[in-house]
User: Fold this.
Amino acid sequence: MPELKIVESGNELLTPEQTASYLQIKINTVYNWTMRKILPVCKMGRLNRYRRADLDAFIEKSMREALTQ
Assistant:
């Protein structure tokens, strides 16, 4: 399946499968975190898409929280 991209802003949109691969987690974890509103998601009709920039911010936030504990 081809990757979706937003050309104007340069923010790449990822499918749930691509998101799981990018974060190196299971696809079920992506769905779980999406339902629990842990992962930022872009709804396109019934489809979930994830901006790579949002995922990078999620990783940075998670790392900061881990370092302060």
In short: The chain has one domain: 4-68. The chain has a mean pLDDT of 89. Strands lie at 4-5, 12-14, 42-44, 47-51. The first strand starts at residue 4 and ends at 5.
